[in-house]
Amino acid sequence: QVQLVESGGGLVQAGGSLRLSCAASGRTFSISRMGWFRQAPGKEREIVAQIWWSTGRTFYSDSVKGRSTISRANAENTVSLQMNILKPEDTAVYYCAADQSNGWYDLWGQGTQVSVSS
């Protein structure tokens, strides 16, 4: 079993930056990709970015493209999301997730709050 622990959320002013990190432990060899999702109050959870573990290929949603960078450190089994030029609409609970080679995200972290003030 893999466990995911997020860190790095907080309160920031619009235009600022935050870096979220997610540490995976346990049977990490099963992970094929990891991603960051977010859920704002009253809205559905949406994908923000994802990275394939073996190739490093990345995907970004249009809402964060050009402002965010997802990266991985395979040796430490961590994935990070650097978010820049934050906007109030980026306010949400951010979740780290892993695909344990099943084709879908089947493991989730507990979430970390990101709040952006205008």
Written overview of the protein:
The chain is 0% helix and 54% strand. With 118 residues, it is an all-beta fold. It is globular, with a radius of gyration of 13 Å. The mean pLDDT is 95.
Structural class: mainly beta
The ordered H/E elements are: EEEEEEEEEEE
The total strand number stands at 11
Please identify the oligomeric state.
single chain
Distance between the termini: 40 Å
Low-confidence stretches: none
User: Strand percentage, roughly?
Assistant: over 45%
Shape field: globular
Instruction: Calculate Rg over CA atoms.
Output: 13 Å
For the biggest sheet, the summary is:
7 strands, mixed
Q: What count of helical segments does DSSP give?
A: 0
The helicity comes to under 10%
Let me know the average pLDDT: 95
Structural descriptors:
118 residues; mainly beta; seven-stranded mixed sheet; four-stranded antiparallel sheet; 54% strand
